[in-house]
Specification:
mainly alpha; citrate synthase activity; 17 helices; about 400 residues; Citrate_synthase_AS; binds s-citryldethia Coenzyme A
Length: about 400
């Protein structure tokens, strides 16, 4: 009882949403996309097939797979005037700042896919977003380094097209390394959906108001950018680089355990996983594979593995059930492919756009859907009368 106001002490703030898309068991470290274990999909599938699965609920037949691939591929180009938007940004703008703006701006161009009540327009918007995210992301990178944009090449895979638009130049052919392409596919699969995480909840909440899909995805990109969420991959690699050598790990472990120090081990801990994030297990293997196959060593990967070993044997992390999450090793993979840290969360957004769209579609197809309105527990002052300025002392 807070004076004149009372609130229902039985009120629970755990407003849950119902979904058939992704299942997580945080205690067991289990992650299923429409019932399929994430490690099997990462090992055996490809990103567009996983996108079809998340959107439609089942793995596609061969004809469905080919048709879906064609539908997505034919949307990879962007409106020429949308490309002009990039010239308004500073060259040193963070690519996530560009992605927030440019994806939201898609609503200013694709007027034939903003009517959320038209199922066909929802599908076209979904395909446009999934298809254009890599093109827009590659353009953000090219713009930051002063190189010309490359148009998509629809004869390539989803991952291959993105790699070529990002690292290719008009002056010479770009040869896609199958090792890099495979690592890129796995990276995209592992980050595609994750139940009701912060950015997916943001997309659902924006969508529940009837906002157009481009605006909703732009809101999701903004939320993902935070270092406690998708921005952790950039922060984790920067942390590993700051540690630099294994002998400095104890200093950072001590800081992470010090309650008076706001520092946290980036890429460690999770709102739901109180066991090893199954994506981190696969990501660690992808990191080792790509470095081995490219014949490279990366001291950062060695630091990451030593840090993981020390933390997982430290009572503080054991007691608090803190394990590596998806962001701990993903930076090593993206760095090995050649991306700067500023592009890490952009890649996460390319992948998670599929999950956001699947979750948004599931919500829009629910006839009972109402606008979201998170509840609050009021803890402010009870009612009081206004006091004029000259009477306030
Ligand atoms: C993602 O939700 C999702 O599914 C997100 C995501 C997805 O795919 O969408 O999985 C992607 O965002 C992964 C998380 C990426 N973020 C980071 O790696 C940033 C570092 N991690 C922390 O900021 C933290 O672990 C969070 C934000 C992820 C979770 O924070 P919580 O909910 O506070 O974690 P918790 O309740 O399990 O913490 C228990 C204790 C707390 O201490 P006490 O209050 O009990 O004293 O552990 C501490 C926390 O302070 N703790 C850490 C820590 N993470 C939690 N201490 C040191 N280092 C850490 N990384």
């Amino acid at each position: 009882n807070t004076g004149r106001f009372t609130y229902d002490p039985g009120f629970t703030s755990t407003a849950a949403c119902e979904s058939k898309i992704t299942y997580i068991d945080g205690d067991q470290g289990i992650l299923l996309y429409r019932g399929y274990p994430i490690d099997q999909l990462a090992e055996k599938s490809n990103f567009l097939e996983v996108a079809y699965l998340l959107l439609n609920g089942d793995l596609p037949s061969k004809p469905d797979h080919d048709e879906f691939t064609h539908l997505i591929t034919r949307h990879t180009m962007i409106h020429e005037q949308l490309a002009q938007f990039y010239r308004g940004f500073r060259r040193d703008a963070h690519p996530m700042a560009i992605m927030c703006g440019i994806v939201g701006a898609m609503a200013a161009f694709y007027h034939d896919s903003t009517d959320i009540h038209d199922p066909q327009q929802r599908v076209i918007a979904s395909h446009r977003i999934i298809a254009k995210m890599p093109t827009l992301a590659a353009m953000a990178y090219k713009y930051s380094i002063g190189q010309p944009f490359l148009y998509p090449d629809n004869s390539l895979s989803f991952a291959g097209n993105f790699l070529r638009m990002t690292f290719g130049v008009p002056a010479e052919p770009y040869v896609i390394d199958p090792v890099v392409e495979d690592a890129m596919e796995k990276l995209l699969i592992l980050q595609a959906d994750h139940e009701q995480n912060a950015s997916t909840s943001t997309v659902r909440l924006a969508g529940s108001s009837g906002a157009n899909p481009f605006a909703c995805i732009s809101a999701g990109i903004a939320c993902l950018w935070g270092p406690a969420h998708g921005g952790a991959n950039e922060a984790a690699l920067n942390m590993l680089r700051e540690i630099g050598t294994p002998d400095r790990i104890p200093e950072f472990i001590a800081r992470a355990k010090n309650k008076d120090d706001p520092f946290r081990l980036m890429g460690f801990g999770h709102r739901v996983y109180k066991n090893y994030d199954p994506r981190a297990k696969v990501m660690s293997k992808v990191a080792k594979d790509i470095l081995d196959k490219l014949g490279r060593s990366d001291p950062i990967f060695d630091v990451a593995r030593e840090l993981e070993h020390i933390a997982l044997n430290d009572p503080y992390f054991i007691d608090k059930k803190l394990y590596p999450n998806v962001d701990f090793y993903s930076g090593v993979v993206m760095s090995a492919i050649g991306f700067p840290t500023s592009m890490f969360t952009v890649l996460f957004a390319i992948s998670r756009a599929v999950g956001w769209i699947a979750q948004w579609t599931e919500m829009m197809e629910d006839p009972e859907q109402k606008i979201g309105r998170p509840r609050q527990l009021y803890t402010g002052p009870t009612q009081r009368d206004f006091v004029p300025l000259n009477a306030r002392g």
